[in-house]
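Dear colleague,

Thank you for sharing your sequence with our group. We've completed the structure prediction you requested, and as agreed, I am returning the results in plain text so they can be pasted directly into your records. Please verify that the sequence below matches your submission; if there's any discrepancy, let me know and we will rerun it promptly.
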Amino acid sequence: QLSGKWFLVGMASRCSYLAEHSHQLEATMVTMTILDGQSLVISTFRKLDGMCWEIRQHYLPAQAPGCFLLRGEGNCSKVDVVVGEADPNSFIILYYQKGRNISVKLYGRTSLVSDAVVDKFEQHIRAVGLSEDVTYYFPTYGGCHTVLRETCV
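Please find the predicted structure tokens below.
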């Protein structure tokens, strides 16, 4: 149900890099694919130096439905990913937790979501102790919405 094209609409995080570079946010599109009925692959298309690049991440199934594990470099670099709420036709809210740090992302089937969906997102971010001052909304213009294979790595 999560497969297909999604747009990153908003993100709440205490990440200092995000806070320092929030003025550089660009529209971001992702493609989600379910492999073997369990694993989730997310391809994120980002612009860098005027070119669109594809970043692929493989989320492994965890112990419960809707829970995934993203492994990074090294033994301590793992991120737990949980589907907080979803309507596969319009939005998905994902929680990302690494150690004691948590982030919440809102994806939409379109780059604009309803006020009701934004309200749900804001309820989720408050529920984990995040606030408006660490919530960022992504622009709906620019970015890499149509990606030529030759420009992606």
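Summary note from our side: The chain has a mean pLDDT of 85.

Kind regards,
the structure core
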